[in-house]
Design goal:
Blueprint (H helix, E strand, L loop, with lengths): L4 E7 L6 H11 L3 E8 L5 H6 L6 E6 L4 H9 L6 E4 L10 H8 L5 E5 L6 E2 L3 H18 L11 E4 L15 H12 L4 E5 L1 E2 L12 H20 L3
Parallel strand pairs: 1-2, 1-4, 2-3, 5-8, 6-9
Antiparallel strand pairs: 4-7, 5-7
């Protein structure tokens, strides 16, 4: 029998694409459930979610915002043997999950990576450069075994949570910390190449230069804390 798969999505104002993303996951994967967390969208996303009639789809609407806490809320409501995460506005990446499932036969977590052979990034120059700098810093401080600490698109065996649980504060920094923790505990990690498509609506989390650099600083600070924290 196929392993049950849980895919976590988070949304904030994704009315233009979210139905396509959900339909793509259900049409691509067998025995899959989708757990979606919406952070108080105001563009009609919630109204679209309410029209989806599928017993394997559940969503949670909350007033707060935050990627890390949205992921944790989704995580604690999963029932799958395999648990994954993907961007809610990139349905074109869903086809990678079939190969990721195959790779889980000999690995514990499979990441999509822009920084292994065959990977790439088609976003704006500023976002590509910032991603490369942060990942260079991650490899320098946390170890070079992982090439892409920040793509956050993954599929893992549920048992991985015995070796590390995401600490739900901040933005994407939480996933860097999670990867570092499970890597230290000997979890088998595999990276598969993917090409990140261009931004469609810009970044919701860094919509100004000030916010962009503030977010970057929080990443660097969190990486140093991760490395030198004793527990």
């Amino acid at each position: 029998m196929y392993k049950k798969i849980s895919i976590i999505l988070s949304t904030y104002n994704e009315a233009l694409i979210i139905k396509t993303s959900i339909d793509k996951i259900f049409s691509t994967l067998d025995n899959v459930e989708i757990i979606l967390v919406d952070d108080n969208s105001i563009d009609g996303t919630l109204e679209i979610l309410k029209t989806i009639d599928n017993k394997n789809f559940r969503f949670y609407s909350r007033k707060s915002r935050g990627l890390a806490s949205a992921f944790l809320l989704g995580l604690i409501n999963t029932n799958g043997d395999y648990i994954g995460w993907t961007d809610s506005n990139m349905p074109q990446l869903t086809h990678h999950f079939s190969e990721m499932i195959r790779k889980l036969e000999t690995n514990d977590i499979v990441l999509l990576s822009r920084y292994v052979d065959g990977g790439g990034d088609q976003r704006s120059t500023m976002r590509v450069l910032s991603s490369k700098i942060i990942n260079f810093f991650c490899r320098l401080i946390l170890g070079s075994e992982i090439k892409d600490y920040t793509s956050s698109i993954f599929l893992m065996r549920k048992e991985v949570l015995k070796y590390g649980v995401p600490i739900a504060y901040g933005h994407g920094e939480f996933f860097i910390e999670f990867l570092y923790k499970i890597k230290k505990n000997g979890i088998r990690i595999c990276e598969l190449p993917y090409v990140q498509p261009p931004d469609q609506e810009g970044s919701k989390t860094a919509s100004s230069f000030l916010m962009f650099f503030s977010l970057g600083f929080s990443y660097f600070l969190r990486i140093l804390i991760i490395r030198f924290r004793k527990n």
